[in-house]
Amino acid sequence: MTTGTRAVSVSALVLVLALGGYATADAYDVVPGILTLDPVAADPAPFPQAPGAILPDEIVPALGDVDASAPVPDADDVQSLVDRFAADPRLGDDAHVGVVVADRLTGEVLAEHDASTAREPASTAKLVTAVAALGTLDASTTLTTSVVRGPGDQVVLVGGGDMMLGPDEGDAGVVNGRAGLGDLARAAAKQLRLVGLTEVTLRVDDTLFTGPRTSPGWDEGDLAMGYVAPVTALAVKIGATKDGLEYPPRSADPTLAAAKIFAQRLTEAGITVQGAPVRGAAPAGATVLASVSSAPLPEIVEFFLESSDNTITEAVSRLVAIDQKLPATFDGATQAVLQAVTRLGVDTSGAQLTDASGLASGSHLRPTTLLGLVQLVLDPAHPELRPIAVGMPVGGLTGTLSPRYQKSQARGLVRAKTGSLSGVRGLAGSVVDASGRQLEFAILVAYPKDLWPTPVLLAIDDLVTALHTPTPT
Predict the structure, then answer these.
(1) Coil, helix or strand for 246?
(2) What are the tens digits of pLDDT across the range 278-328?
(3) DSSP labels for 384-446?
(4) Single pTM value for the model
(5) Are strands 438-446 and 424-432 parallel, antiparallel or unpaired?
(6) Cβ contacts of 150 within 8 Å, gap of 6 or more
(7) Which domains occur in the chain, in start order?
(8) Which residues are catalytic, by number?
């Protein structure tokens, strides 16, 4: 064998051995290649179906369409029911009664009794504030509570009208407590540390609302019993000082009570607050450190309608006043809400409001005005007002009507705003009759204050239950 041949043979042997070694290394996944001794991988799972590609369940509206083919009840029969109610001995000998009943689709008044006389509305007056708010303000409106820089080491907590702040973390699943002071404090503390500020003095700005914080028409007992809190531009849980009560005691100064909680949360977040919080307006154009926002306005309106919360109604009425460039006071707010519903087409003749919630004495509304509000709320031409129709209590099921109509055939078919004051009971809303026809009504009763109110409520509920089963033509 020649030297050249031997060299080629050796080179070929080296190449074969090299290729064999590489193949072995490839099989054991030491080097990259197509060979492997690992077991064959299973087929991959099918690509998951995107949740958005799944057809949703059919949405059932909270309020269905009115059946136009359902017969209209006979007006004489409905008038007979109203007359019988006006003479009901359960109302007392000196009762003053105002009632009006109309057909939802035609607007025809089927029966009435002294419906054009203005009388004390109690909390049915909240319908005025609800319609004014959602009929004039943007549905996306939220109430912002913010923290801004003041001069030197000062920070300012600025109220934007939210009296339902949570004391710590906000809860996206509730209205009362949607925005949290703890969240606000932690976000502000982060910004303060970035600029090297770890000791601050705290001021609180609640100048968005002006004038007296309580109405002269409120009884001292209303505050003591927790029926209402002083109306300010910020508060924690509507000024409540205890949890778990329907009518908890309220802070005498919800603004400063909220500021003290905020100071505590800042301290927990590593920012030392020197001294006690004091009131002080925020500087114009101040740098915003952090902010939190309330639930949207429609949810707030539903909240005060279902719970008949006086304080939140008053706060919302002031937002209407601000929008109309009127003072954010009791006088400015009542003027604003009445002007707003008048512009929306409601006849407010004879109307007078001493507050926006109906808690104060001295307010007067006609049953026909309340009927006009209900008609507007249920009008498909005003979808912006639909949350009011949905938010009103449902007989036997929700809100202030949950304990009523429990054994009535109209249970679940009555949607109405209640009204209760000493010597006054009212109800304004709608009921679907047994034939599927929707009737609208407003009922106001002034009765002797020494009379126990339960018989009056029973008489009102008996009338509405009877409207559920009138004799059709």
Answers:
(1) coil
(2) 999 999 999 999 999 999 999 999 999 999 999 999 999 999 999 999 999
(3) GGHHHHHHS-BTTTSGGGTTSSTTSTTTTTEEEEEEEETTEEEEEEEEE-TTS-EEEEEEEEE
(4) 0.85
(5) antiparallel
(6) 156, 203, 280, 282, 283, 286
(7) 75-138+300-309+326-468 (3.40.710.10), 144-295 (3.50.80.20)
(8) 123, 126, 308
